[in-house]
C-alpha cells in the first residue's frame, strides 16, 4: 500500500515539473544546454540554409565516380562473357564423360579385382597340385560372393 502511494506522489511531482517546463517557469536547473540549430534567438526567426557550412569532405563526395566506374567494368565483363565462343563447350561430349566417370570408376575397380583373381588362379595352376587348384577355385567363389555383397551396398 505504501509503495502505491509513493509511486503516485512521484508521478504527481513529475507531472508538476513537466507543467512548469511547458509554462516556462522552470529554468535550466539540471544544467542541460539546449542547442538551437534552426532557430536564431537574437532575431527570433528561423535561420536560412547556408551551403558553406556543409563540410566538403563527405563519403558521398569520395565515392562519387566509383559507382559509374564499377557499372562500366561490369558491363564490359558481361559483354566478354556473352561471346559465343565462350558459351559453347570446347568438347562436344564433355557432359557425357562427366556422367560416365562414376560408372567407369566402379567398373575399373571390378576389372582390377577380376584380374587379381585370374592371376591367383594361374599361379595356383602352375604349382600343379590339384588340391591347391580346388582351394583356389573355392577362394575365387568366395571372392565373387564378397563382390556381390559389396555391390549391393
> Which series of helices and strands comes N to C?
HEEHHHHH
Q: Walk across the major sheet and give the strand order.
A: 1-2
Q: For the CA atoms, what is the radius of gyration?
A: 46 Å
Largest sheet: 2 strands, antiparallel
Number of strands: 2
Q: Which whole number gives the mean pLDDT? A: 78
The general outline is: elongated
Structural class by helix and strand composition: mainly alpha
Low-confidence segments: none
Helix content: 55-70%
Percent of residues in beta strands? Answer: under 5%
Distance between the termini: 77 Å
Total helical segments: 6
Descriptive report:
With 153 residues, the protein is mainly α. The chain has a domain at 95-152. Helices cover 67% and strands 3% of the residues. It has 6 helices and 2 strands, in the order H-E-E-H-H-H-H-H. The protein has helices at 2-23, 59-62, 66-81, 84-87, 94-127, 130-152, and strands spanning 39-40, 45-46. It has a two-stranded antiparallel ribbon with strand order 1-2. Helix 5 runs antiparallel to helix 6 (130-152). The longest helix has 34 residues, at 94-127.
Amino acid at each position: 500500500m505504501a509503495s502505491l502511494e509513493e509511486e503516485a506522489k512521484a508521478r504527481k511531482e513529475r507531472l508538476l515539473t513537466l507543467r512548469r517546463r511547458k509554462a516556462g517557469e522552470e529554468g535550466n536547473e539540471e544544467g542541460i544546454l539546449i542547442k538551437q540549430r534552426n532557430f536564431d534567438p537574437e532575431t527570433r526567426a528561423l535561420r536560412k540554409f547556408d551551403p558553406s557550412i556543409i563540410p566538403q569532405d563527405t563519403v558521398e563526395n569520395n565515392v562519387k565516380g566509383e559507382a559509374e566506374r564499377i557499372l562500366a567494368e561490369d558491363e564490359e565483363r558481361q559483354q566478354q562473357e556473352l561471346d559465343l565462343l565462350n558459351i559453347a563447350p570446347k568438347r562436344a561430349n564433355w557432359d557425357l564423360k562427366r556422367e560416365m566417370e562414376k560408372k567407369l570408376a566402379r567398373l575399373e575397380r571390378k576389372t582390377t579385382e577380376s584380374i587379381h583373381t585370374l592371376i591367383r588362379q594361374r599361379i595356383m595352376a602352375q604349382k600343379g597340385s590339384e588340391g591347391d587348384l580346388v582351394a583356389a577355385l573355392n577362394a575365387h567363389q568366395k571372392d565373387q560372393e564378397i563382390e556381390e555383397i559389396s555391390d549391393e551396398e
